[in-house]
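User: Second chain of the day. Same drill as before.
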Amino acid sequence: MRDKQTIRKEILSEIKRHKNEVTTVRHWNEYAELHDLPKSVTIVYYFGSWNDFKKALGVKGIKNVRYNKETLLEIAQAHSDKFTSKREWDEYARHKGLPTSPTYISFFKKWNEIKEYLHIEKTTTTKKGYSKDDIVTILKQHGKNLINRQQWDLYAKEKNLPTYKTLRKHLGWNEIRRHAGLPERFKYNKETLLNHASCHYKTFTSSTMKEWDEYAKSNNLPSSGAYYRAFGTWKKAKVECIKQKNETPEV
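Assistant: Same format as last time:
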């Protein structure tokens, strides 16, 4: 089990590149929510107080820049090509030393309200707040973990990412694969799939989708998703495989 000292070091390491956002507790919590970072309650638990954490991070003496509405609009206008989604803007702003989305929201309440002022195309978001730009960014960062819907949803839950259903609200399957950096999917027919399954009969009929995907990846075989799409469910694919095995005369 890790001790508190180890965890404190991990927190400092994780937040180091977000140092400029460590101002007030309220501001940090809004920023941390957007970027999946430790909230103030966790930080205070391990460091004793917010000020002790700031000292440990080396932000003592850094003065908070005070912005007004006019200045914020001027900054956004000057960098309008980067003023897309909150997530993408924050990534850009952090590197350029510009005010991040929580600062803007404190003045304008809604992200799209700022875009109205600047005549920038509004960002379409899902109920959970993901825009198409966010989805593309997430796929570029995590796309290598996309094997099938079930596997992605498990991974997404663990990493606090949008579900497969949310991905599909914005992008088609081929677009998802392209942004994820995955090769174009080969379309298998039922006959080909059953032939592959029959050659690995015991493993195929006894595996869960996750277990089969691990085996398939190592043996260059179609994923469980290919069977799911072709037969409707994983169970039906197994039934057809067993049925074919029983109907095939022994030589």
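Residues 190-247 form one domain.

User: Great, on to the next one.
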